[in-house]
Amino acid sequence: IGWYDLGLIHQANFSGMIELAGQVIYYIFGDEDTNNFSTEYTFFVPPLAGMSNKTGRGTRVILYDDLGRGSTDDTFTWNHYGDPSILTTMAVGAEIDNGIVDAIYHGGDISYATGYLSVWDFFMDQIGPLAGRVPYFTIVGNHETDWPGIPQQMFPNATDSGGECGVMTTRLIPVPGNGNSTAFTRVNEPWWSYDVGLIHFVGMSTEENFTIGSKQYIWLENDLKNVDRNITPWIIFGGHRPMYINSDYGGTDTSDIVVMDTLIANIEPLIWKYRVNLAFWGHNHALQRMTAVYDQKVVQYSTPVEEDGNITNQYYNPQATVHMVVGTGGAAFTVNYVTPYPDWCELVMYKYGYARVEAVNASYLTWEWVQSIDGVVYDRVSISQDPYATEWVLPTHSSSSNDKDDLPDYGIGLIAAGGIVILAIFVAMCFGYIQNPCISKDITEPLLKDKDAT
Fold first, then answer.
1. What distance lies between CA 419 and its chain's CA centroid?
2. For residues 216 and 76, is the Cβ–Cβ distance under 8 A?
3. Are the beta carbons of 318 and 362 closer than 8 angstroms?
4. Residue 258's pLDDT is what?
5. Parts of the chain with a pLDDT under 50
6. How many whole angstroms separate alpha carbon 95 and alpha carbon 62?
7. CA dihedral in degrees (400, 319, 317, 352; nearest 10)?
8. Closest by CA position to 382, among listed 55, 107, 58, 95
């Protein structure tokens, strides 16, 4: 029970992608010996580092965590998350159909197979229409990696992966290498970075040792300090367990609060020093939006501004990272937030969906959180920055004030050359609806914090 033969894993590299950056290619796969080939599929080649999209829009990516396996019928497998997961997959697939996605970043807790390998087979079938058409980046979460005895393990007694130890995720969904001798990340070194258009993406592992002086820490600092902001003016940083989380779960080494404090003590000085614009996390199955924050002190609250009948929460040249928790891909909700909110927490919401992020140009980035079932946007955010800045300066005035006069009106589109290697992983398509609702409506409305309340 629990064993399933996945067969062979085949990998194939696309070549000549530099010349085709920003274009659509068509491909088939199969076996020449048996003359058995797939139908024709499309792949949207992302823009090179520093390149604007050929259609005139900015660099656009989809972010989510904690997806899991869903299905289009009533069959169940281990850790089956039903229609929330499949609806997120379908909604993101529709965005790819429209040609408006350059990459997907799935920030941990991938299939929730936890040792039941048949679930991986179903899951790879589910994400085929996504991972086969745009780059699909992942980072490992606790359900991919944690198991006693793993080298560099951050939580040596945790067993959340069911014995997978990171092997299945890093083999089935390889991500870019991190400077070692292989083209893709190693099982026990699953941190990476990659440039797409105007964005430098970084993936850290919260499950391997990230403390100051560790192998991962040294790699992260070296990567961040070498980002050329003239080419990739925006940095989006991902990790699974959140650095900032509104949660009542504390006490143990794997608890939300203890992990948050550990990340703040070890990693936050790095992402502040190297001006990481946006950090997104999961693990806690909720949507949470934070202020620009450093050392648990508010650096800048967002300012709600009405635009075309919608409210956009704007951060004006914030001098610290804005954090988001987007564990809303499909796994059952984690309802453990506290009230009153911490000063640095602005929003808690329990709905299923994903974030649509666009680096419009060197000075302006937008975030929209989209509900999977109907495409409704429930949270809008914009972040502006001075693209000529070389360092951040923490404000000396009250943390609740927002000085909007410090940022000139920049409108810069950067174009530069670069290199790209794309791995296409493709499996069969599987789409559709299933019925059962998974959460009662009374906890799905946005829970906004009144910043003026005492």
1. 22
2. no
3. no
4. 97
5. 1, 180-182, 398-401, 403-444, 450-454
6. 9
7. -80
8. 58
Strand 234-238, strand 199-203: pairing: parallel
Q: According to the 3-state scheme, what is the secondary structure of 171-183?
A: HHCCCECCCCCCC
Task: Using DSSP, state whether 269 is helix, strand or coil.
Answer: helix
Tens-digit pLDDT profile for residues 338-369: 999 999 999 999 999 999 999 999 999 999 99
Sign of CA dihedral 373, 375, 376, 380: positive
Q: Please give the sequence-ordered ranges of beta strands (E in DSSP) within 210-282, or none if there are none.
A: 234-238, 278-281
pLDDT at 402: 52
Question: Mind listing the pLDDT tens digit for each residue in 78-131?
Answer: 667 778 999 999 999 999 999 999 999 999 999 999 988 888 888 999 999 999
8 Å CB contact between 320 and 293: yes
| CA separation for the pair 219, 210 (Å, rounded) | 10
Q: Is 59 helix (H, G, I), strand (E, B) or coil?
A: strand
Burial class (CB in 10 A: 0-12, 13-18, 19+), 177: middle
Q: Which pTM value belongs to this model?
A: 0.86
Cβ(305)–Cβ(311) below 8 Å: yes
Nearest CA to 136 out of 182, 58, 203, 85 is that of 203
